[in-house]
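#struct-help
A.M.: can someone run this one for me? Single chain, 247 residues.
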Amino acid sequence: MDRRDTVLALLVLGATPLTAHAQQAKPPRRIGFFVLTTAAPSAEWLAAFRVGMADLRWVEGRDFVIDERYGDGKSGAAPALAAALMATQPDLVLTGAEQAAAMLMQKGKTIPVVFAISKDLVTSGVAVSLARPGGNATGLTDLAHGLGAKRLQLLKEAFPRVAHVALLFDPIDVGNLAQVKEIEEAALRLRIRVSTIELGQAAEIDRVFKRGAGLSAGSRLVRQRLVPVDRRRDHACQGPRNLHQQL
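D.P.: on it. Structure tokens below:
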């Protein structure tokens, strides 16, 4: 074999695996990311996910891409956003809590949905039961049943003179509604008056604060949800001042 034949043979051997690799190359996995808040509160979560994928040697852009969708604290627009994301047929969708997970499941019955945390999987419709969840979603639950009443009890023990509490909650969050009922029942036993105030989006927080002040409530309970996270410092700064004035 002369030099020319040797070079041609090497070129053929070198090109064959490249061609086969090109034919076998698959498009990157498409991962949806859907939360009801703005991007800021979820930035650390998404960054941690990317780090975890890198640890598994998954390269973003080559092995997977992330399609991010944010509700910006507007509960009314969230179902349409969930439907639009599921219509793109992603391989997997990541989300925050059960409210968003339930919206996604309503729009797609076969696409896997992974949620970070849930207060009430069954009531929200995410799971048929804890023993046999069914469906296409998986994630963690904090088993918060009973904690709403306990929080009110602890508030009363810490501030015995509290007689009126403003309870802020999201009206479309099923998990919140269950705990609102629980808190109202506990309030009867503790002889505390509870005024419920709906908080559907972050932009309403200032108005809700003013309404709570007008009710002369001695304290506020805010049901855990991701919309108020954007304004968590507002609660922390305004709460003690208002509480001191009332007590």
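A.M.: thanks! Residues 1-23, 239-247 have pLDDT under 50 and may be disordered.
D.P.: also worth noting: Strands lie at 29-35, 64-70, 92-95, 113-118, 137-141, 164-169, 193-198, 219-222.
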